[in-house]
Amino acid sequence: MGHFWDVVKADFIKNMPNAEVIIWDIVKVVIFLILARIIINIAKRIVARLFNMQRVRMDKRRKDTLESLFDNVIRYTVYFLLIVEILSTFHVNIAALLAGAGIVGLAVGFGAQSIIKDILTGLFILFEDQYGVGDTVQINNFTGTVIFIGVRLTRVQAWTGEVEVIPNGQITTVRNFSRTNSMAVIDIGVAYGANLKQAMATIEHVMHELQGEEENIVGVVSVLGVQALRDSDVLIRATAECAPTTQFAVQRKAQQRIKEAFDAAGIEIPFPQQTVWLQTRVSDSAHS
Length: 288
Description:
- Helix 2 (about 20-50) runs antiparallel to helix 3 and helix 6 (about 195-215) crosses helix 7 (about 245-265).
- The radius of gyration is 34 Å and the shape is elongated.
- The protein has three domains: about 1-115, Helix Hairpins, CATH 1.10.287; about 130-175, SH3 type barrels; about 180-265, Alpha-Beta Plaits, CATH 3.30.70.100.
- About 50% of the residues lie in helices and about 20% in strands.
- It has helices at about 1-15, 20-50, 60-90, 95-110, 115-130, 195-215, 245-265, 285; strands spanning about 135-140, 140-150, 155, 165, 175, 180-190, 215-230, 235-240.
- With about 290 residues, it is of the alpha+beta class.
């Protein structure tokens, strides 16, 4: 490596231009920088226009993800060509530099297999559209909202705020909660002595009333009936089809409304309780 850099340095000193040429070279570098910015902006606009064409049928999340990917590829490509042009302007032997970089790359490549795996997996994730920015997912054992997708890393933010940075090559399982409608499941326990028909009619009334108010309920609401006979209550289950990832908010609101309706109707929601039987044994002397 030392010999390689000595060759590059000697070649640069040998071909060192005079002050007037250096000034012109600096002007050319500035022009190259300006042109690079113009090319990047034009390319980004072309990509955005292509994705926004009516013939391109794709949801906004998918468009945003792919636009971000193509923007990065364009930027890296233009900057790479810019660096090559700048080195050429200052009379650096590009062929010798690339040959040395190839040797270094071969040496580093054996230790960078995990990075290559991350990049390849990231490309598959992007092009297969396994998930996108804004999706609620469970990656491996971490659940949250995707806030960044790169060719090497994915960042997921949990609802409590912490951010998990996951190398794409380490992603083994993905569960995407944002692709299809979700189901709100409302389980309500009533006392064994309660009128089950009245309880189910009350739940059904509340659910249909909530359906008219709640825009996140996008499908059918149903009272399925008795789900289980438990130690202290009879469990009644109702369901509502909701927009993706909104089922928990709907469940909380439905449970509150049902509790209020039960209180107004005098329907008991029992707490856990046990019946204890005490048996006394009659002594033998009592029979004598």
